[in-house]
């Protein structure tokens, strides 16, 4: 296979992925293949952000010659309550008159420069219906007239196509944002410090692994103090916590956390007592001498565990979605005393019953504060879940080496550590920090659009269903 041909195939693959996301807009792009690979990619990049007023799912390809052919018909239903668009590829989509009114892209309703709404629900009469709809000659927009109020405005067809909200389209979107699991035999995905530093593509590879599998090991990071900041800030500014910007995992005589001693740590997620617990956690191994006994790092994918738990113990699963537990960090003898108390469920689900967030940290869980009759059921469910964590096929254990930087989604993976002993002058030293989950997801999405395959970022278990 020649290099060019391979590149072309890669393009085709990207286009297909984008096609899946967009539901059919990309096909005309193939007609541009004769422009050559670089031109094509440039076009891709330019068009990605060129179009004002299109939200996340929209990645319009403009200036495509046979663009006007994309819509076969646009009809207002008799009562004016809906618009039905028939697209070239046979897809039919239906839009509510108020949905359309709120999506009006005229300058009165929408500020293109900031990509934000200027029209709000309470300014619209809830009886608003459509009077008229017509596709523009260039096939890029649809003009609409609403009554009462007599407002007329336009909406990009890209926008309408990208935001189809029928059950099939939503199911597709959901599928495309579903993360992957490591198979039983799969090692933790790895990237090298060099490749991540070399290009945005390398950075995207690293972050896609974390987004897909919840974890990625970076090898060959220089073992300099605070180097972690430089690497991790390729994503976003680090999320400062009560443990500082960067924390040192070493044995301390007056530890502010049990992690800063040599004891073993059970599976946990860090700082779940925060309203917004840190999103990603990174641990950079600066020193880990051979003479240190133990100190292995362990991981388990709680997303997988909750799935298995639900299947095996449906009643107990429900208990953990309903009984409130308290996570707290109360520590008055540290340099800056803290007193953080929050209530959560171990497993949070959305309307459809899907897991959207997990909260697990035995070390910071406070005494239960629920009526007595809940306790037996709760403790039973807790123990079953805890035992499934320990035996999950997603269990991974590794001994970090100097130069390793392990990164993981703290909303999805639980981590732990076996106890260790520093014998014969041996020493173990990790530096850690966090990244906000939204800023991580944003970075993955932007990189996917600019240097990646255009796919949607996967769900990150921050409470959101998409
Ligand atoms: C932590 C932690 C693990 C380790 O600092 O939160 O879990 O391997 N450390 O020391
Ligand atoms: Zn308008
Ligand atoms: Zn931890």
UniProtKB/TrEMBL annotation:
Residues 185-434 form the TauD/TfdA-like domain. Belongs to the gamma-BBH/TMLD family. CDD domains: CAS_like. GO terms for cellular component: mitochondrion. GO terms for molecular function: 2-oxoglutarate-dependent dioxygenase activity; metal ion binding. Residues 76-160 form the Gamma-butyrobetaine hydroxylase-like N-terminal domain. InterPro entries: AlphaKG_dependent_hydroxylases, GBBH-like_N, GBBH-like_N_sf, TauD-like_sf, TauD/TfdA-like. This is Gamma-butyrobetaine dioxygenase. Its cofactor is L-ascorbate; Fe(2+). Pathway: Amine and polyamine biosynthesis; carnitine biosynthesis. It comes from Potamilus streckersoni. It comes from the Eukaryota. The keyword DNA-binding does not apply. Keywords: Carnitine biosynthesis, Dioxygenase, Iron, Metal-binding, Oxidoreductase. GO terms for biological process: carnitine biosynthetic process.
């Amino acid at each position: 296979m020649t290099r060019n041909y391979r590149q072309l195939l890669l393009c085709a693959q990207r286009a297909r992925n984008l096609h899946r996301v967009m539901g059919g807009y990309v096909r005309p792009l193939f007609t541009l293949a004769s422009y050559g690979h670089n031109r094509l990619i440039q076009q891709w990049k330019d068009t990605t952000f060129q179009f004002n007023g299109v939200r996340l799912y929209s990645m319009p390809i403009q200036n495509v010659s046979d663009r006007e052919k994309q819509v076969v018909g646009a009809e207002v239903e008799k009562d004016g309550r809906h618009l039905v668009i028939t697209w070239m590829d046979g897809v039919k989509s239906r839009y509510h008159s108020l949905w359309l009114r709120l999506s009006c892209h005229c300058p009165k309703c929408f500020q293109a420069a900031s990509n934000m709404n200027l029209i709000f629900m309470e300014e619209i009469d809830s009886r608003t219906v459509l009077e008229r709809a017509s596709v523009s000659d260039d096939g890029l927009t649809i003009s609409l007239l609403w009554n009462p109020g007599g407002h007329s405005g336009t909406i990009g067809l890209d926008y309408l196509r990208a935001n189809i909200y029928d059950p099939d389209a939503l199911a597709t979107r959901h599928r495309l944002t579903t993360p992957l699991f490591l198979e039983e035999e799969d090692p933790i995905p790895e990237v090298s410090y060099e490749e991540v530093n070399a290009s945005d593509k390398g950075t995207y590879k690293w972050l896609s692994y974390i987004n897909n599998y919840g974890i990625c090991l970076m090898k060959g990071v220089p073992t300099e103090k605070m180097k972690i900041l430089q690497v991790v800030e390729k994503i976003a500014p680090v999320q400062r916590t009560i443990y500082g910007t960067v924390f040192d995992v070493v044995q301390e005589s007056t530890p502010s956390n049990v992690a800063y001693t040599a004891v073993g740590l059970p599976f946990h997620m860090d700082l779940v007592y925060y309203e917004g617990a840190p999103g990603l956690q990174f641990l950079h191994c600066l020193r880990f001498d051979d003479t240190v006994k133990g100190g292995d790092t362990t991981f388990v994918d709680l997303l997988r565990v909750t799935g298995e738990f639900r299947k095996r113990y449906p009643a107990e699963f429900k208990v953990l979605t309903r009984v409130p537990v308290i996570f707290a960090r109360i520590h008055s003898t540290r340099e800056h005393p803290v007193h953080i108390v929050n209530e959560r469920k171990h497993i949070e689900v959305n309307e459809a019953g899907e897991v959207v967030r997990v909260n697990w940290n035995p070390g910071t869980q406070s005494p239960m504060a629920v009526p007595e009759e809940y306790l037996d059921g709760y403790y039973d469910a807790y123990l079953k879940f805890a035992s499934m964590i320990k035996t999950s096929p997603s269990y991974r254990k590794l001994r970090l080496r100097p130069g390793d930087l392990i990164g993981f989604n703290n909303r999805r993976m639980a981590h732990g550590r076996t106890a260790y002993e520093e014998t014969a002058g041996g020493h173990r030293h990790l530096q850690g920090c966090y990244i906000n989950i939204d800023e991580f997801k944003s970075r993955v999405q932007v990189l996917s659009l600019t240097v990646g395959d255009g796919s949607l970022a996967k769900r990150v278990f921050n409470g959101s269903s998409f």
